[in-house]
Amino acid sequence: MKVKILSRMGEDDPEVFENQINKFIKDKEVIDIKYQTALAIAASDQIGSTGEFDENVLIMYEEDKNK
User: Fold this and answer.
1) How many domains does the chain have?
2) Residue 4 CA from chain centroid, whole number
3) Could you tell me where the beta strands, DSSP code E, fall in the chain?
4) Cβ-contact 38, 56 below 8 angstroms
5) Judging by DSSP bridges, how do beta strands 2-9 and 48-63 pair with one another?
């Protein structure tokens, strides 16, 4: 079994991220996919509030034996 971690920052295009995942798993035997979102919020009287998030995907897979 092998693993691959892919990440996307909140401002990145989600469709590009989905395509990246689909392209990676196309020739793999996927065992499992885990998804996680992280959110960071900063607030102060001077800057207001800002938030950033990122998404991470852990793909557990086997290489395609036919390739």
Assistant:
1) 1
2) 10
3) 2-9, 28-44, 48-63
4) yes
5) antiparallel
